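A quick word before the example. In earlier lectures we treated sequence and structure as two separate objects. From today on, think of them as two lines of the same record. Here is Mitochondrial import inner membrane translocase subunit TIM23-1 written that way.
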Amino acid sequence: MSFNQPKEDENNENRRLYNPYKDLEIQAQKLYQLPTQPEFLFHEESVRQSRSWGENLTYYTGCGYLAGASTGAAKGLVDAIRTSEHGDTMKLRVNRVLNSSGLTGRQWGNRAGVIGLMYAGLESGLVKLRDTDDVINSVVAGLATGALFKAASGPRAAAIAGAAGGLLVGCTVGMKHALKRYIPV
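And the structure line, produced from the sequence above:
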């Protein structure tokens, strides 16, 4: 039964439900309008414009793992569908899809999570070292993360991965600044 419809009691009489806001001069719809700006308990929190190193670590690791796992699961799904044979039963096909998606999703998720962890640590370290938070820290952290992640594969692979990491982070930061400037939020 909704609150807007009249309620019937034992005597089949229609009566209105109790409205606790009827005596107030405030409309009920305005009671639940939430503020659009963030609220802070302490003034120091409102002055700080970036996340702490622990928040960065959690954010980049989690986002990296989620993106890698979902991309890997999609790749595993495509691979499992491609390798299915004509005579396979539905149960066998479903098993192949689940196994392939799970394996590839875990592998890619772990790799991307480690990359996010390394990037967050390097970026936070550079911010602390240089005592400023700017684009240079992000690009250098991306470059160092790519190089460090592929360091075991040799110097050429590390240099290519470092350049790709720096370029990827540079493009991402550039797009973020362009969106902030040209699209008001």
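Notice the following. The mean pLDDT is 86. We will return to this example when we discuss secondary structure assignment.
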